[in-house]
């Protein structure tokens, strides 16, 4: 095995490829050095990472970073196709929902020898993030955390004031599956029909709505991050799977989960939330919020910068997800990571770039752009202040970190198969075609898929 010194990666080793039968493709080497292809989907983060690349290249003049950016849906299609063609990017941004599948297909490079050789500090990241990117046995690492996200309620500040609510009011909202608590009362009062009557006033016409108290975009499938997850995860101890990561048994049949869905769906019946047909009609949920069709909307921290840069300052803000029946609030806490393709010709250089992105030198740059919360704890603090400087209450997102109420995303090796079952099942429930109890049968189907031989 050879070794070499690369600044930004410190000591790097050549590691045997984790995949079998992959030809060495990816970036290239010429007289000017090595070019690494780096893929990402979030265009909002490009300026920050271009600055990181410039700083990295100044330290490593023999390595050049070539960026390629695709939209979310096209990104995964192109990535899968490039892996099949044995010409995938050397380094790419990975998502927990896709990670398990790529591991099972042997498409990712194990970074463990590099981490150990460099004595790379994994404790610098927010709790729970580094653990999402290891193998089921725990002895292989396939990603370094780059950022984290949680969800909050985006709301129209003018509508809030007109309805008579204060910021303190919305920060302390509570929900329960029996009567919805103060959170449902809030949604009712924020809902206004076309005659100007609010949802909690006499004469309210739920068939003629001008402003819905709560918007959404679709039924949430089996994940529900910005749909039903804040409620299900705060209703007792419900979680998607029996363990995380690498769960094998799903829990959509749990009574606590189904009663959360029953309550969430009831908001449509009461007129406080649009039907699934309206919500998924093609008009984006953020666009509906901006246009005044929705008074509030559960959305992720990744969209905060977009709202801040495309709307009038002070017109929108955020408050945290409501406190659940057990006295705590909840949010999905997802995290992205940078992974190295198993077929890269340049594993040393790829590790150098990945490990540099996992330093405060790079993540502080990303933090200053107020686009995402970086994975390194100290950099997250910088990002929170940057969001505050834009006029947004970053605590609505970071409260889940400080209070420990963020629930890490499920990592399984067959998420695509799970979604193929849960997407139509949840859409059927939210369209009132089937009852929430039908999710028990969907859960049976999911667990059948998960129990099949790993080679199926």
TrEMBL record:
Keywords of the record: Signal, Transport
Signal peptide stretch: 1-24
Question: Would I find Lipid metabolism among this entry's keywords?
Answer: no
Q: Does the keyword Protein biosynthesis apply?
A: no
Cellular component terms (Gene Ontology): cell envelope
InterPro entries, A to Z = Bact_solute-bd_prot1, SBP
What is stated as this protein's family in its record?
A: Belongs to the bacterial solute-binding protein 1 family.
Q: This chain belongs to which protein, by name? A: Sugar ABC transporter substrate-binding protein
| Biological source species | Brooklawnia propionicigenes
